[in-house]
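Subgroup meeting minutes
Present: P.N., E.W., G.H.
Scribe: E.W.

1. P.N. recapped why we're keeping a running log of single-chain structure predictions: easier to compare across weeks, and new members can see raw inputs and outputs side by side.
2. G.H. added today's entry (159 aa).
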Amino acid sequence: MTPDVDVLILGAGLSGIGAAAHLSRERPGTAYAILEQRAALGGTWDLFRYPGVRSDSDMYTLGYDFRPWHGASMLATGAEILDYITATARDYGVLEHIRYRHEAYAAHWSSADSMWTVRARRIHQSYLVERRLLGRRARLAEGMEFRRSPAGQPGRPRG
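Output recorded in log:
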């Protein structure tokens, strides 16, 4: 079997974009895709936009080693972090690899083929589009705010 991609990244938040940018820098020519459940990149920093949202970790630790943080404050606002993630994705050619509104719901490793088979579907549509993706590596880039519960439940994020 020939893989669709060499690397499949699940999630277009801080970690997923960082992994993709790293591939672009360190392994040019690597075929990869990012599956993002939401309609936008940024993960937590796109989802939570309430007044005063900011990092509780310094950006020198939270940021990418290949793209040092040069903001005015070491504790960045949510909007500043989202801009940082978006600029990184743009500058490293990551945007064209993101498949928005795609949910990976099953993964199976084949030792015989040394390959992952990941089942994914388009979400938020009136019909289901299912696709089987084959990849040599899969990287789960879930953030701390990842939830598998229905949107709209008390205390749960929407989106």
